[in-house]
Design a protein that fits this description.
This protein has 15 helices and twelve strands. It is α/β, with parallel strands linked by helices. The chain has a six-stranded parallel β-sheet, with helices on both faces. Strands 9-8-7-10-11-12 form a six-stranded parallel β-sheet, sandwiched between helices. Keywords: Glycosyltransferase, Transferase.
């Protein structure tokens, strides 16, 4: 193993991710944040899309988003096909071998003592690099979903960090009976420090509600679409304009999707006004914001897409999660796991969403607060990133 033998020598760590969705990058950022808390450490963030011309990466991301929006059945087919042995793994190795030739010089320039991956593609690249050029390199994989895709399980991985110990079996069955088995840690998906600050739920909730003008007993619904604002918010907001929801306050966070933000801002006029101030709409629209932890703890329901990191952030805040129309593939896998293990609800259409909100509105304030506090204590993984950093520091002397 290549790690420095003593703490007086700098430990250099490479975190390699892919910009397919914001979750992989957010997990990498959370990991970097924790690792930089160690003494004498240098962290380098890498993006596999930097291995080839930017025009190719942009074209791929556009194609990916178009497939999800226009023909999700095609993505579902490719996900199922790739999530098994045989030809799928041969294709994986072919792609990763090509990308390794493009990215080998970057890895050699960084000269890391340890590497982390937060996505299947960099995992495969680093696995091949380790096998061919650096057998002593320590390789850790942070799984950012509540399911484990087959392409994530590669030879030479030293440790997998997963959302829950119940996922160990998925890695074990994929890894088979190899001579060296990876270490498995079910510490949770790393989330950024702002989601793990030790503050009383009641304090955070009260301060946020005061800032946004929501009374303590008001029913607040947060729409969270991930960094790209991919939740079908227009459809949901249009439904919440209905008179039967006139007592629900809605806050929509569109992330970096400025087009969606402008469309929702135009819809504010169609909402009834707040009783306390008839100049302010019940609908609040925000773009990218650092206040997501406060909003999640202030809300009575968080309607969200089923990205792994987004769900982990919700769990950390004790949010009452409602997954809306999960996409095929890992989002459906996340939804099944969250429903079975953490009691999260899921709906597939507006009618089901309306029915769910009408039921939730009837729950008393004291019951809502009690449930939220329980979820925050039971399901949050506050220490995930810190525990991974501590483990990395212990490897230093090996």
């Amino acid at each position: 193993m290549n790690l420095p033998p003593a703490k007086n020598k700098k430990l250099k760590i490479l975190i390699l991710s892919a910009p397919i969705g914001s979750g992989h990058r957010m997990a990498a950022a959370a990991l970097e944040e924790a690792l930089l808390g160690l003494e004498n450490v240098e962290v380098v963030q890498g993006n596999v899309f930097d291995f080839f011309p930017s025009v190719i990466g942009k074209a791929f991301l556009k194609f990916y988003e178009t497939v999800l929006a226009v023909c999700p059945w095609l993505y579902a087919f490719s996900y199922r096909w790739s999530n098994r042995d045989g030809g799928s793994l041969r294709m994986r190795n072919l792609i990763n071998g090509f990308l390794l030739r493009l990215g080998k010089s970057f890895i050699e320039e960084v000269k890391p003592d340890a590497v982390f991956s937060t996505h299947a593609t960099p995992t495969g690249i680093l696995s091949l690099y380790k096998q061919k050029f650096d057998p002593g390199l320590w390789l850790g994989v942070v799984v950012t979903d509540f399911t484990v895709h087959r392409w994530l399980v590669c030879p030479g991985v030293d440790a997998y960090f997963v959302a829950d110990e119940k996922l160990f079996g998925q890695i074990g069955s994929a890894a088979g009976r190899s001579e060296t088995q990876p270490a498995l840690y079910g510490w949770g998906i790393p989330v950024r420090g702002r989601f793990t600050e030790k503050q009383e739920l009641a304090t955070v909730r009260g301060e946020a509600r005061s800032r946004f003008g929501w009374s303590e007993d008001a029913f607040v619904c947060l729409l969270a679409g991930g960094g790209g604002g991919m939740l079908p918010m227009e459809e949901i907001v249009r439904s919440l304009q209905n008179e039967k929801f006139k007592d629900i306050y809605v806050v929509a966070v569109t992330g970096h999707n400025d087009g969606l933000r402008k469309k929702l801002e135009a819809m504010q006029k169609g909402f009834s006004k707040r009783e306390a101030d008839d100049s302010i709409s019940r609908l609040t629209v925000l773009g990218f914001t650092d206040e997501m932890p406060q909003l999640m703890q202030a809300a009575d329901v968080v309607i969200t897409k089923a990205g792994g990191v987004s769900l982990a952030e919700c769990l950390e805040c004790g949010a009452n999660i409602l997954i809306y129309h999960p996409l095929p593939g890992q989002e459906q896998g996340n939804t099944v796991f969250l429903h079975q293990e953490y009691g999260a609800a899921a709906v597939t259409d507006i009618r089901q969403l309306d029915d769910y909100l009408e039921r939730e509105k009837k729950v008393s304030l004291s019951e809502r607060l009690q449930r939220q506090k329980m979820r925050k204590q039971r399901y949050g993984h506050r220490a995930a990133a810190g525990r991974i950093a501590e483990l990395t520091d212990k490897l230093r002397g090996r």
